[in-house]
Amino acid sequence: MPSIMVQTDSIYWYGITAAAYLVTCWVFSVVRGVHNCGTPKERRAYIWPDRKMQVMIYLCGTVLLPYVLNPQNEAAWILMKSYFPCTYYFYCGALIFCFFGTVKQWKVWKKANFIAAIITFLAMAPLIANAWWPSGLLSPEFVKAWNYVVIVVSIIMIGYASVAMWQVMKWLKIARELNYSNPEDFPTEYAHRMWLTPIILTPFLWPAFITDSPKVMAIMCIPLAIFNIALLLNVMPVWRRAAILTEVDEDEAEAVPYENDELAEERSNRIATEIEKFVNTEAAYLDSHLVLEQVVERCNFSRRYVSNVLTERFGGFSDYVNGLRLNYFEQYKAQHPNSTDESAAEASGFTSYKAYLKAKERLPQK
């Protein structure tokens, strides 16, 4: 009798921990579903995962409900242990690809994401149907063989998530250089923390599948539930709404009326004049937190046009601004021979002497 009681208690906790995980998924979906992203949403200039994408992904956890209601059911257990390694890497990859608003270049990878979604769905569909059908649909032999399909798809999705991480890291570097005169203004820590999500989650996705142990799954559900809440807290604050922008905004990439070379040249000259006047003549480069948006607002042209002119005529926003700062640093030191390197760097628009050295190393010709 005691052994039966222990077994019953264990099964009880298996269901409770799974329910805790599932409830956090639902909470996440509801809160994100009603959260209004305001201006960043309208401009697609945000640094957290797309709201609709998150809601849809977290609602997918509902398929685990049979295990929550009956942890003793073999079909429900097979679904539960397979769900995490098979789906989470796809979820992470998809969210990373659409993570950074205008940086995402979603059109480039839309087909790859769609294919990954189909592969994941086909791998999970038989197990979901088997768990939700009252008497089960699949034979033990089929389920045993299907475990290998789950493993193969999981490995494919690891590769998919890795490609997403690699591609987005390239985009982040481009966004930082194109839009921030001071790289330290770029929210690198937050971006990297979210970028590393697949690696952070890996220790919690495989143990239950490998050990085939409900007890291990019960333990793993707790940190996974905590992660859901931690992610929600990370993506909700208003101060996260920083614009990470790239050279071409999807919203601005629509076709423009035909214009001849003379008109295009005239527009470029006007933009170049405004850039030179604002950044150089009026010494906006001395603002250590100068960003591309300020230049765009001054020029009164679209960011795409301004960014193109900066690249073609000035060598890019960051290089242009920091080149001016480097020249000013030399002038400042000559005029103030008793000044420290740190004070001269700050007076020149750098956030520190270390930032000056980084710029000098990158732009040795200046």
Q: Care to describe what's here?
A:
With 366 residues, this protein is an all-alpha fold. It has helices spanning 2-34, 38-43, 51-59, 65-69, 74-97, 106-132, 140-179, 188-195, 197-205, 207-211, 214-235, 261-281, 292-299, 303-314, 317-335, 341-347, 353-362. Helix 15 (317-335) packs across helix 16. 36% of the residues are buried. Residues 1-6, 38-48 and 238-258 have low confidence and may be disordered.
Key phrases:
mainly alpha, 366 residues
Secondary-structure topology with pairs:
Elements: H1 2-34, H2 38-43, H3 51-59, H4 65-69, H5 74-97, H6 106-132, H7 140-179, H8 188-195, H9 197-205, H10 207-211, H11 214-235, H12 261-281, H13 292-299, H14 303-314, H15 317-335, H16 341-347, H17 353-362
Report strand %.
Answer: under 5%
Average pLDDT, rounded to a whole number, is 82
**Would you count the extended β strands for me?**
0
Give start-end ranges of low-pLDDT stretches.
Answer: 1-6, 38-48, 238-258
Instruction: Please trace the helix and strand order, writing H or E for each element.
Output: HHHHHHHHHHHHHHHHH
Quick one: biggest sheet?
none
Dominant shape: elongated
Indicate the radius of gyration in whole angstroms. Answer: 26 Å
